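Re: export button greyed out
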Amino acid sequence: GQQVMQIPQYQHVQEGEDFTTYCNSSTTLSNIQWYKQRPGGHPVFLIQLVKSGEVKKQKRLTFQFGEAKKNSSLHITATQTTDVGTYFCAGPTGGFKTIFGAGTRLFVKA
Amino acid sequence: DTAVSQTPKYLVTQMGNDKSIKCEQNLGHDTMYWYKQDSKKFLKIMFSYNNKELIINETVPNRFSPKSPDKAHLNLHINSLELGDSAVYFCASSRGQEGPREKLFFGSGTQLSVL
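Workaround output, generated via the alternate export path:
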């Protein structure tokens, strides 16, 4: 079945360093979503990408959707301790079903 | 007001017991979901209801039975709890108009620990 692979599983950075997480699908996606889950919290929607090659920015966060609509990335510039958490990509598999990548857990050292 | 609320937040119980988790959303959404998050943070969909009708039923043991009395509520009943059921269970909702293009709103989760 369709899978959404996400790497890396973990990333430790020093505050101020950049961070990137990558998401790859075995099939073309109609759209991709990104969520953030703080430690002990619940996933919170960040953004959705729909168009091939789309790039969206939210302050220090940059989201990209690949030209083939099979991969996506989330880049954080100059990480802060408030960025700590697990970042998930999520894509559709048909009908109302959204499947999540395994997530990338970000640790930021002050 | 909490948009998606689920109770209880913590549930500690013995193997073999039966327990229920309740979820309510006040967003006026038509679709609700149950997700299971294991210790490795992997989020897996279990069930989804659209306007009280079951639309997604993943490969889940039949000990798990969802019920949606109305479109604002989705409960999860688990019979004969097993150690492997220990996880965080998240309820979520979406508008129900555009399928997987809709963003999901998650509840705060129920941490289930089976001893």
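Chain B is about 0% helix and 55% strand. The button fix ships in the next patch.
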